[in-house]
Amino acid sequence: MLRLAPLAALALTAPAFAQEALRYDVAERTRALAFDPGRFFADTPQPAIAIRYVGDDRSVPVYAIAVRHGCRTDPGTVDGDLDCGQRLIARMLRAPFPGTPRRPRERGYRLIRTLEQGRPDSDEALRRQLDGVGLEWVEADVRRCPKAMAQLATIGELRFATGIDFDRRLSEIVLHADTIRFEMGDYLLRASYEGWLKPGTAGLWADAFAKSLEGCWKPATAPVPWKAPVR
């Protein structure tokens, strides 16, 4: 009997471990279903500019932005503007917050806590909850936003290199940092940065571009990204 006791204990604890391992990851699935810039424009999985800002070690989603260069291709729309090829349309999804948060990550933590309270156990359940949490789904005509155009004018100064010094004895350590993923591209050309908002990097430029669009946003009429067709 003494030899069977450990096996019995293992049998009792195994379901708990299994349940923990299989627990639905609300933060990860929210990033994938809602805060993926590749879902913001129909038939445009790689927008001209894609930004995703996440907070703290848990990577709670704060905002995501996609900028499309060219004519609209949303289902059911026809772009009759002959100059639409030069259009720059930005769309943003942002976690809601009453007032102004002290730190951007507070938006993400509030959103994930709200979603977790509903205990979603599948993508479909999470989509239903996303419908009711007041996410900011907005768009802007970048060319009609002077601050954003001024920021774009500095694009030639961007540094996508991380500035890593391999001769330094100790690595630069940043604890519990918010991070940003920034991608920009054109035909047969793509550049990206992912990391903390280190001064002088493309990541800090991307966050400044996001801030430059404030005051230009209006409610988006396109379908919300978590209901976008799966490509």
**Could you say which overall geometry the principal axes of the C-alpha atoms support?**
globular
Q: How many E strands? A: 7
Percent range for β-strand residues: 15-25%
Secondary-structure-derived class: alpha+beta
Q: Please report the number of helical segments.
A: 6
Helix content: 25-40%
Major sheet: 7 strands, antiparallel
For the largest beta sheet, what order do the strands appear in spatially? 6-5-1-2-3-4-7
Polypeptide structure, described:
- The protein has helices at 4-21, 26-33, 105-117, 123-130, 146-152, 202-212; strands at 49-55, 60-69, 88-94, 136-141, 179-186, 189-196, 218-219.
- With 231 residues, it is an alpha+beta fold.
- The protein has a 7-stranded antiparallel sheet with strand order 6-5-1-2-3-4-7, sandwiched between helices.
- Strand 1 (49-55) and strand 2 form a beta hairpin.
- Helix 2 crosses helix 4 (123-130).
Could you give the topology of this structure?
Elements: H1 4-21, H2 26-33, E1 49-55, E2 60-69, E3 88-94, H3 105-117, H4 123-130, E4 136-141, H5 146-152, E5 179-186, E6 189-196, H6 202-212, E7 218-219
Antiparallel strand pairs: 1-2, 1-5, 2-3, 3-4, 4-7, 5-6
Helix pairs in contact: 2-4, 5-6
